[in-house]
């Protein structure tokens, strides 16, 4: 069926048309959340009533066309409610990651000039209250959770809705959808960035609406579909794909309790589509292989046979038509192995959509071989965000697929990827200079390096600013090398370094479970991880891993030295962005002594 109402030009227009379509329908719902161990739906009618009431409250507090309102919250029903209420008034919402520290929240609230902020809980409220005296334009704070005791100037969301309902009882049209125009600003999303202060990406209603329409032409979605939402709604990827696209097609969004409970929630929600990032696939693959490793030798042989059969089947399918014997073996493998793997994902999953970072080709092919379809896509916050995605009928791992409808791609002479289309941002908030640096000659300059194959599929090779230039003048893209190293079962995370150095080195976060298992099998004490990682046998293990990997690389691409870290890169320790990308500059600065030591020591030759 696709879009419930294909003619929408603004997000409020989309919202009202979908609510009208489902008015009074008890068996359809847009959201479901976990209450007392069970998923409970929120009906279209109940959500619409809450939006109207909250919008009336906000309007009564002076929020109007063009005003900025921040949302500082984890994914929960109140996020969707807040977003829809703010946008219905023609106001502009400014989403904030709940992981942000107070100083970054202060910068964004000041820079955007927010008049109000909606926060989720006491932790987030505490951050804002500590800054309030510095925020001259911030007038109202609304908190989704109940307060233990009243706080001056802070309104509970429940009380705000009650106040809004009283206003609507006297003036029923008070919260009616405002005359929002397609080129009006819908949201300012501050990019987490890998260096420097965040920039506010201005996305209009047209930017987002056209992107939703383009995406709906790639993936068939309808009222029978369900997604599981766990990526942050503060990010454009989840917001456009996992929220607006799902809502526009009448699909149901199940909210995961947390990133840690995703496996459990998948089995409960039985999603048909999941929007995620490559990091999740690494974890799932590691779990599957660990379970297989603990099975009997017969079951291990059956799994490995099924995996190789799946790879052979898809390779033959890509080059023409699988042979009759391969088809027969594939059917048997599906019965013995693939069906059991699919059952772990709820039994009804049609697609994973992967974005936010590069999906290693080997990971995509692993899941494809087991009957799990991953559609890798690409885009940036500045492109609202989707520009490319693999099509279900023609997946090619190692690429992010062709462009979506209405988007044009070009490769500059230096390899930079450029785009044109109705999804390209209006610019950066309060920063015309930064806008001019990326939008000129009619094109948006992504800062990513890539190439197009003969079928128009885009392959990303690296970030322009991540290119390592060695002291010998070699230009090296670290990402493909990191993806190769990450294929090792003993590697959890890796960052390659070597700028202005004679060779490449790597900071490696081990897969701690695998290392402990290896140590136990080899009689090495595992009491202290930091000490374990200095053991000669462990270092030799990683030397051998890198030696094997180096055979696939050019001489100047080989990683010749490494340092093992005893703690992972995380959002909390500042090594990852909220979308789990490496903050390379911060990591280099934090581990500069360890990196320097690698280059002072004798070179280890992996050739």
Automatic annotation (TrEMBL):
It catalyses: a long-chain fatty acid + ATP + CoA = a long-chain fatty acyl-CoA + AMP + diphosphate. One of its GO terms (cellular component) is membrane. GO terms for molecular function: ATP binding; long-chain fatty acid-CoA ligase activity. The keyword Glycosyltransferase does not apply. Residues 25-429 form the AMP-dependent synthetase/ligase domain. InterPro entries: AMP-bd_C_sf, AMP-binding, AMP-binding_CS, AMP-dep_synth/lig_dom, ANL_N_sf. This is Long-chain fatty acid--CoA ligase. It comes from Prosthecochloris vibrioformis. The lineage of its organism: Bacteria, Pseudomonadati, Chlorobiota, Chlorobiia, Chlorobiales.
């Amino acid at each position: 069926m696709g879009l419930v109402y294909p003619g929408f030009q603004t997000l409020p227009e989309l919202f009202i048309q979908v609510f009208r379509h489902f008015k009074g329908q008890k068996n359809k719902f847009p959201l479901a959340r976990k209450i007392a161990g069970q998923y409970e739906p929120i009906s279209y009618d109940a959500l619409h009533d809450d939006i109207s009431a909250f919008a009336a409250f906000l309007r009564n507090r002076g929020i109007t066309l063009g005003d900025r309102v921040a949302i500082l919250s984890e994914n929960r029903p109140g996020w969707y409610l807040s977003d829809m209420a703010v946008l219905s008034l023609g106001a502009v919402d400014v989403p904030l990651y709940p992981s942000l520290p107070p100083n970054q929240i202060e910068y964004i609230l000041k820079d955007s000039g927010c008049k109000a902020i909606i926060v989720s809980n006491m932790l987030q409220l505490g951050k804002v209250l500590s800054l309030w005296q510095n925020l001259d334009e911030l007038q109202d704070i609304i908190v989704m959770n109940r307060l233990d005791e009243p706080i001056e100037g802070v309104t509970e969301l429940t009380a705000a809705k009650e106040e809004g309902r009283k206003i609507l009882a006297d003036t029923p049209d008070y919260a009616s959808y405002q005359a929002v125009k397609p080129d009006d600003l819908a949201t300012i999303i501050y990019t987490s960035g890998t260096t420097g202060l965040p920039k506010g990406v201005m996305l209009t209603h047209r930017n987002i609406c056209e992107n939703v329409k383009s995406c709906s032409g790639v993936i068939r979605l309808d009222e029978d579909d369900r997604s599981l939402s766990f990526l942050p709604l503060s990010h454009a990827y989840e917001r456009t794909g996992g929220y607006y696209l799902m809502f526009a097609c009448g699909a149901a969004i199940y909210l995961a309790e947390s990133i840690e409970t995703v496996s459990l929630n998948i089995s409960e929600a039985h999603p048909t589509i999941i929007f995620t990032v490559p990091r999740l696939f690494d974890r799932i693959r590691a779990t599957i292989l660990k379970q297989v490793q603990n099975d009997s030798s017969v079951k291990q042989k059956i799994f490995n046979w099924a995996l190789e059969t799946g790879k052979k089947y898809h390779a033959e399918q890509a080059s023409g038509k699988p042979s009759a014997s391969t088809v027969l073996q594939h059917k048997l493998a599906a019965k013995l192995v693939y069906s059991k793997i699919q059952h772990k994902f709820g039994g009804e999953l049609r697609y994973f959509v992967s974005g936010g970072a590069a999906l290693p080709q080997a990971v995509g092919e692993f899941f494809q071989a087991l009957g799990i379809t991953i559609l890798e896509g690409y885009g940036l916050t500045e492109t609202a965000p989707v520009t490319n995605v693999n099509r279900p009928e023609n997946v090619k791992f190692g690429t992010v697929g062709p462009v979506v409808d209405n988007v044009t791609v070009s490769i500059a002479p230096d390899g930079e990827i450029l785009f044109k289309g109705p999804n390209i941002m209006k610019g950066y908030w309060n920063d015309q200079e930064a806008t001019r640096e990326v939008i000129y000659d009619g094109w948006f300059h992504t800062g990513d390096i890539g190439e197009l194959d003969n079928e128009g599929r885009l392959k990303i090779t690296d970030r322009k600013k991540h290119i390592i230039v060695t002291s010998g003048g070699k230009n090296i893209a670290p990402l493909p090398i990191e993806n190769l190293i990450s294929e090792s079962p003993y590697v959890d995370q890796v960052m390659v370094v070597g700028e202005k150095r004679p060779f490449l080195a790597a900071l490696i976060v081990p897969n701690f479970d695998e290392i402990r298992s290896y140590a136990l099998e080899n009689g090495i004490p595992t009491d202290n991880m930091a000490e374990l990682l200095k053991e000669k046998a462990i270092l030799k293990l990683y030397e051998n891993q890198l030696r094997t990997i180096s055979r696939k690389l050019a001489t100047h691409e080989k990683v010749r030295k490494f340092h093992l870290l005893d703690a992972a890169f995380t959002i909390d320790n500042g090594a990852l962005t909220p979308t789990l990308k490496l903050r390379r500059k911060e990591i280099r600065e934090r581990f500069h002594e360890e990196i320097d030591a690698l280059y002072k020591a004798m070179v280890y030759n992996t050739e």
